[in-house]
Amino acid sequence: MRTDQQSNTPTATTAEQRGARRAVTLFPVLVLLAGALGLLAPGTFSGGSEAVPYLLGVVMFCMGVTMTPQDFKGVARRPWAVALGLVAHYVFMPGLGWLIAHALHLSPQLAAGVILVGCAPSGTASNVVTYLARGDVALSVSVATVSTVIAPLVTPPLTLLLAGEYLPVDAGSMVTDILKTVLLPVLAGLVVRLIAGRWVTRALPVLPWLSALTIAVIVAVVVAGSADAIKSAAAMVLLAVVLHNGLGLALGYGAGRLAGLGEPASRAMSFEVGMQNSGLAASLATAHFSPLAALPAAVFSVWHNVSGALAAAWLARRDRAGATPAGTTAGTAGGTTES
């Protein structure tokens, strides 16, 4: 997406708009099909759990390649808004995960999985959804970027604090895993973008689909690993995920409005709080807990993209029907489609 420097408003081409809509629309379908495949033919993915961290590394490398120095400059321009987004994200979602696990009396494995989803950083699909909702894309990119960078420092201790009552949590090992599967691939992607920007630019249209396919494989592996338990737990997990995501979207939007950030920024806050990097949560749950604990992350991967796309469509339609459209601020929705 290009930016009009005079109006400070993104001026995406028709092709870019169509590509963003297609990615958000088809990604949940792709993940749903992958989950069904994992459920119907679990033997096909037997032993695949060992590959999940490497697959996540591919996704995060794609995210790093889409980053530019402009993303980090956005943090310096509005530190207060970015800080609010980070606090809201890492307070609301972990807290909601803990409350929902208690309220629904989830089993220890599922409770730990729900909480771990809440402790994960923002999912980069939130950038595209914010764009489609005519929200503040620059703020969305800034919050997603910083939440990912600080995840090694924040996600393990939060998981230990909130999920430790259900299952043993090795926070130190979790820090190492996040550094290897998230931060290092992101930094590697950023370096590649800086060194080989011309070639990377040509490949950018392919990266969201590479990321989407990789996430779909992760979901298939996670579902296959807990196929026997899904039938009895699926309804409860879906309820937990819908509550978690829906309340996160609402609280994120409310935080933005209460802080006086305005409508576009509040929309960005909503999606940055309510949409999670559930691919990371699935990887960590598989490595540190069990395939069953990764089930909430797999379901979240599908649901938060569906709910985000529906919410974005409703907000955009409301703007078109109203006399005063909300508009957007400068930024880019070029992040990878991520769960």
Task: Please give a structural write-up.
- The chain is an all-alpha fold and 339 residues long.
- The protein has a single domain, classed as Up-down Bundle (Na+/H+ antiporter like fold).
- It has 15 helices and 2 strands.
- The protein has a two-stranded antiparallel ribbon with strand order 1-2.
- It is globular and about 45 Å long.
Report the portion of residues in β strands: under 5%
Uncertain runs are 1-13, 327-334
Shape: globular
Treating each run of at least 4 consecutive H or I residues as one helix, how many helices? 15
**The level-1 CATH class:** Mainly Alpha
Q: How does the major sheet shape up?
A: 2 strands, antiparallel
DSSP strand count? 2
Classify the helix fraction into a percent range: over 70%
CATH architecture: Up-down Bundle
The ordered H/E elements are EEHHHHHHHHHHHHHHH
Might you state the CATH topology name? Na+/H+ antiporter like fold
Computed structural class: mainly alpha
| Mean of all residue-level pLDDT scores | 83
**Count of discrete domains:** 1
